[in-house]
Write a structure and sequence with these properties.
- There is one protein chain.
- By secondary structure, the protein is mainly α.
- It folds into two domains: about 290 residues, no CATH class; about 120 residues, no CATH class.
- It has a four-stranded mixed β-sheet, with no helix packed on it.
- The N and C termini lie far apart (about 90 Å).
C-alpha cells in the first residue's frame, strides 16, 4: 500500500491537470467564433493578415491608413491561408493560436516522458502550463503571436536537447529561427541554451548556432531589401526604443512569480535540484545544465519583455512554461524511496493547481456584447464615405469601409527616436481632420487630438452612457478599450478655416 500510494496520488494529480486542459479547450472553442475582438489588438493582427492575404506588404512606410505591429511576420503568413479557407474574421487567427497551444502542451508532455518521467507526470506538467491561462492574460487562444512563438521555442529547444547528429542540431536551429520569425523574444530565451550547448557539446552547438544565426541574418537582409529598410525599422529599431518600466525590475520577481505562483517557483527549483542530485543518470551534468540554461532563458525572456513599457501579462508565458517544465521534472524524478519527496512534491503540486483555479465564464463574451458589436458595425456601414476608428480599424473593414492604422502602432512610431517621422504622421492625420475626410470618427479615448479636432468635429453621442464596465468591452488584455464616442463633422466656414 505504501509503495502504491504515490502512484495513486500522481494519477489523481494527472486527472486534475487534465481538467485544466479541458477547461482551456472549452473556453477557446466557446469564444473562437466571436466576431469581434477579445483583446484590443486582435483587430490589428487581423488587419496585418488581411494585407498579406491580399498580396500586400506589411512593412511599409507608416501612414494614417496602415502601420504594422512591431513583430516578425511568420504568424501572419501562416494565418493568411487559413483566412482564405475559414473566412475573413478572427476564427483563423484563434485557431492557429489554439493549435499552437495544444502543440505546446503535447511537447511538454513528451519532453517529460523523454526525460524518464511517467505519462502522469507529463500530463501534470502540461496541466501546470494550461492552468496559468488566467495569469497569462487569457492569451492561449487569442489572435496574437505569443502562443505560436512559445510552441516553436519549446520545440527547437527540445530538438536541441536530444540532438545527436549535426543534421538534428541544424534542424533545431531552423525551428528556433522560425520562433524568432514569430516574435523577437526568442532571441533572449535561446541565448543561454546555445551558450551551454557550445560549452558542453561544441560541434552540435556550432551547427545549431550556424543555422539559427544564418537564417536570422539572411532573412533580415532579404526582408530589409524587399521592404526598402522598413523591416529593420519595425522589427529592430522601434522595439529597442521602448521606455523601461522600472516598477518591474523587482515587481516581475515578486508580483508575477512569487505572489502569482508561490508554489510553482519552489517546485521548479526543486526540479533543478533533483536533476543535479540524480547521480545515476548517464548525462546528469549535461541534462541539469541544459534545463538550468533553458529555465534561465525563459525567465529572462519574460523579464526582458516585462521591463518594456506596455508589456502585458502575455509576456509571462515563457516564464510559466519554464516553471511548468521544471515542476513536471520534479514530480517525474522525485525519489519515491524517501518519505519527504514521496509526499511533499505531489502535495505541493496539488495545492498549486488548486490556487490556479479560475471561473471560465469571466473569459467569455456575452450575447449582449455581440449585439452591441452588430449594432455598431451597422452604424458604420450606413455612414457616407470614410470612417476613422483608430483603436479598432477592423470595425471599419467589417462595415465595408477602408481601415486605418492601429493606435498602438501609431504610439510605437511616436515614441521612436525620429521625431520627424512622428510629426509627418501626425500632419497626415491633422490634414485629414481639417479636410473632414471622415464622415464619422469613432473614438475609444477622448483626449486623442482633442484641440485639433475641436474646430472640425463635434461629439455627437456616447455609445455606452453610464456603462463603464459593460457591453462590448474586450474581456482580455489591457487597457480594455472599446469604441465609445462618435464624432461627426462640424459646419466650417471659410473664415473659420
Amino acid at each position: 500500500m505504501r509503495k502504491k500510494l504515490p502512484v495513486a496520488v500522481q494519477s489523481s494529480l494527472a486527472v486534475l491537470a487534465l481538467l485544466f486542459v479541458a477547461l482551456l479547450v472549452m473556453v477557446a472553442f466557446s469564444r473562437i467564433g466571436y466576431p469581434y475582438e477579445l483583446e484590443w489588438m486582435e483587430g490589428g493582427s487581423l488587419q496585418n493578415i488581411q494585407r498579406i492575404a491580399g498580396g500586400e506588404s506589411i512593412y511599409v512606410e507608416p501612414s494614417i491608413d496602415f502601420i504594422p505591429f512591431l513583430y516578425t511576420p511568420l504568424y501572419y503568413y501562416l494565418a493568411a491561408p487559413l483566412l482564405w479557407l475559414l473566412g475573413d474574421g478572427f476564427i483563423a487567427l484563434r485557431l492557429l493560436s489554439l493549435l499552437a497551444t495544444l502543440a505546446t502542451l503535447l511537447l511538454i508532455h513528451q519532453g517529460i516522458r523523454r526525460e524518464g518521467g511517467s505519462h502522469q507526470s507529463g500530463v501534470i506538467a502540461a496541466g501546470f502550463y494550461a492552468a496559468t491561462f488566467e495569469l497569462g492574460g487569457a492569451w492561449f487562444d487569442l489572435g496574437r503571436v505569443d502562443s505560436l512563438m512559445v510552441a516553436l521555442l519549446l520545440a527547437g529547444c527540445l530538438l536541441l536537447r536530444h540532438a545527436s547528429t549535426t543534421r538534428q542540431a541544424i534542424l533545431a536551429g531552423v525551428v528556433l529561427a522560425l520562433g524568432f520569425f514569430t516574435k523577437q523574444t526568442v532571441l533572449v530565451a535561446v541565448l543561454p541554451v546555445l551558450t551551454w550547448q557550445l560549452f558542453v557539446r561544441r560541434r552540435l552547438g556550432l551547427a545549431c548556432l550556424a543555422s539559427f544565426a544564418g537564417l536570422l541574418v539572411v532573412s533580415t537582409l532579404l526582408m530589409n531589401l524587399a521592404s526598402g529598410g522598413w523591416y529593420g525599422y519595425y522589427v529592430f529599431e522601434l522595439p529597442r526604443q521602448h521606455a523601461i518600466a522600472h516598477e518591474y525590475l523587482l515587481g516581475f520577481w515578486w508580483d508575477d512569480l512569487l505572489r502569482s505562483v508561490p508554489i510553482l517557483v519552489p517546485l521548479a527549483i526543486t526540479g533543478l535540484v533533483l536533476l543535479w542530485r540524480e547521480k545515476d543518470h548517464v548525462d546528469r551534468r549535461y541534462r541539469s545544465g541544459f534545463f538550468l540554461a533553458l529555465f534561465g532563458g525563459l525567465l529572462a525572456a519574460s523579464w526582458f519583455s516585462r521591463l518594456h513599457s506596455g508589456g502585458y501579462d502575455n509576456v509571462l508565458l515563457p516564464a510559466y512554461l519554464g516553471m511548468a517544465l521544471l515542476s513536471g521534472l520534479a514530480i517525474a524524478i522525485a525519489d519515491l524511496d524517501k518519505c519527504f519527496w514521496r509526499w511533499i512534491v505531489p502535495a505541493a503540486a496539488c495545492l498549486q493547481l488548486g490556487l490556479l483555479a479560475y471561473t471560465p465564464a469571466e473569459h467569455l463574451p456575452s450575447d449582449q456584447d455581440r449585439l452591441a458589436g452588430d449594432q455598431l458595425v451597422e452604424q458604420l456601414r450606413q455612414a457616407e464615405g470614410e470612417v476613422l476608428v483608430p483603436y479598432h480599424g477592423y470595425l471599419a473593414v467589417m462595415a465595408g469601409k477602408r481601415g486605418s492604422a492601429h493606435h498602438m502602432a501609431m504610439a510605437d512610431v511616436e515614441r521612436g527616436s525620429d521625431p520627424a517621422r512622428w510629426e509627418e504622421l501626425k500632419a497626415q492625420y491633422l490634414e485629414a481632420i481639417e479636410d473632414q475626410r471622415y464622415s464619422v470618427i469613432l473614438m475609444s479615448v477622448r483626449n486623442w487630438f482633442p484641440d485639433e479636432m475641436a474646430g472640425f468635429y463635434q461629439q455627437e453621442v456616447d455609445l455606452f452612457p453610464g456603462k463603464v464596465n459593460e457591453d462590448f468591452r474586450p474581456i482580455a488584455g489591457k487597457p480594455p478599450h472599446r469604441p465609445h464616442w462618435i464624432y461627426r463633422p462640424r459646419q466650417v466656414t471659410r473664415q473659420q478655416e
